[in-house]
Amino acid sequence: MSQGAWVLVVALVAATAFGLYRAARDGRFRGTHHVKGADVTEAEGQEPVSVLADSDLDHVLGERATLLQFSSAFCAPCRVTRRVLTDVAATVPGVEHVEVDAEHHLELVRRLGVLRTPTTLILDAAGREVSRAAGAPSRDVVLTTLARVIA
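and the corresponding structure tokens:
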């Protein structure tokens, strides 16, 4: 087998492995991201700080939770995510869906560590990040994660 054929085989194996890895992680809610300035705790006698504090979106928090979606203009998975999150917000009382154009809110994107669109953050009633997903989450995954936040 020639050297070019080996390079092709290695490239195909690497691309397939990366694709499988990406498919397994896309749209799954995993952990949170440390937000600078949002680590004030109630034990210190102060109100918890919302991740949306000091932004023009601070007023749109839901009573029980907020589904915060970062998207961009030409992102096809963002449209799917918008439909899923809008449906979930209409189904679950006290939950709001807020879509943020990442291009127009770069300071917030940087502060929250959003690396790609769509990224969905689930915020509790105080506006603290509870979980996040990169990629388009399914309705069932959103409802399951949201149930843990609300309970």
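(Above: one complete record from the training split.) DSSP finds four helices and four strands in the chain.
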